[in-house]
Amino acid sequence: MRGWERALSVLEALGERGQAAGHGWTLDTELLPAHQQQVNALECQGLVELAGREDRAELSALEGRPVRWAARLTPYGHDTLAYAQSRPRPEPTSPADPDRQLVELIPSQMAALRVFVALSGRLRVPPAEGLAEQVRSASCDHGIKRWRLHLTAEQIASAAYGLWLHRMTGSAAEANRFAREYGVAHNPARASDEGPPAVRRAAVGSRRGCAG
């Protein structure tokens, strides 16, 4: 288990036990010493609060025994846990999926697509189904500074449309690069005849492999 996964498991335990107790605190008898050490580390990050002397005295009176250690989530720890539980998960796809293609985007292209999917409710031609989820759950290969997505043909066409909107409002570089690397560009003339989102195949074929 990775470090952030261990941290989240401890936050989950504190949240569940604190809620079950009613007073929000997780007591010394409810966590193993190793987990208590992890809690101490999370306190340094501002995610957990350790009970002070007065809090321990109140808890001891409630429990009818000495409480020497107790911890609870801070507002930041609560929000971290809530975000982690709602965070989009990548779709279980791979480059070998015959219905999907690996698409690698430079940061400015990814930024343009984030704007595109965020406008979904306001657009007459909204993003293709599943594109927003792919954008939200995309992973970044920091070695080559590319965002990696696995898109269907429909989602690639929709991405080309989003980059075309970006082109029409300021920068053509992102759409031009997408056309060069994946052979797809939005064509508004065809869209009026065939229905959105129509695309044209650029003269260059689809790129294979990673970007340089």
Q: What is this entry, summarized?
A:
The chain contains nine helices and eight strands. The chain is of the alpha+beta class and 212 residues long. Helix 5 (107-118) packs across helix 6 (131-137) and helix 5 (107-118) crosses helix 7 (153-168).
Question: What distance separates the N and C termini?
Answer: 33 Å
The geometry reads as: elongated
H/I helix tally = 9
Mean pLDDT: 83
Sheet with most strands: strand arrangement: 1-3-2
Computed over alpha carbons, the radius of gyration is: 25 Å
Question: Notable features of this structure?
Answer:
single chain; 212 residues; alpha+beta; 3-stranded antiparallel beta sheet; 9 helices; disordered C terminus
How would you characterize the overall build of this protein?
- The longest helix has 19 residues, at 3-21.
- Residues 198-212 have low confidence and may be disordered.
- α1 crosses α4 and α7 runs antiparallel to α8 (173-182).
- The radius of gyration is 25 Å and the shape is elongated.
- It has nine helices and eight strands.
- A three-stranded antiparallel sheet has the order 1-3-2. A three-stranded antiparallel sheet has the order 4-6-5. A two-stranded antiparallel ribbon has the order 7-8.
- By secondary structure, it is of the alpha+beta class.
